[in-house]
Amino acid sequence: MRIAFVTCERPIERDVDLDFLVPAMKRRDVSVETPGWSDPAVDWDSFDLAMLSSTWDYFERQDEFRAWTRSVAARTKLTNSLDLVEWNLDKRYLLELEAAGVPTVPTVWIEPGGTAEGAAEIAERGWETVVIKPVIDLGARNLVRVGADRVEQMLGAFDVATMAQPYLPSVASEGELSLVYVRGELTHSLRKVPARGDFRVQPQYGGTHEAEELGAVVREIAAAAVAVAPSQPLYARVDVVGTDDGPAVIELELIEPALYLDVAPAAAETIADALLATA
Q: Could you give the domains of the chain?
């Protein structure tokens, strides 16, 4: 059996999960490669399964990535599946979570040309500090934080659909909680903490993380978020933050999430078994 853990040609950082997934598959006598998704020399038909591991530049090449996923899904087994990838690419999937009763971070959605209307809605909500990002983004790459007086100006600087959320001081002080699921079952959880003076929890901004057992309420919210997906993902990561109304989902990551296997190496074995059962 041959499996591809799909990466990108110019990664923003090292894919630490591969340090655990590759040996786990090799212990099962599986041949493993780590090709970049956009490499034209790759013969995707030669793989029994392609798992999206660190395709971290897809948001910059959206049309190309969409076409590639459709092509690969027709040539081998794509994991997560094509329906999940297409659903999860655009963060407006959060609207479906909200409609299903899953607590989510309050969000204003702004389409191109809707700057004035979006700014007016944000002002009506009384948010003093606002976080703005495109609806298709990755790792807070295009995220900005602005005061209420600069919201309309900043929204006007984007030429794509965007989303605006209130800045949550809890993220800077407490970080984000992440829960990782394999085939709908929780394998591990952790807390991601930003560097001092920052609110972004990603490693490239100095964020750190450590394993943490989370309470029943957070687990129930995260499980409910995973259940809204159009089909059961083989792997999923749910990010939860604290709001004035309690814990809420800020992201449901189904495409190429960091799974933080360094805090739970045994989860790599669970994923390996799931991959073998799926291929």
A: 2-87 (3.40.50.20), 93-103+170-259 (3.30.470.20), 108-167 (3.30.1490)
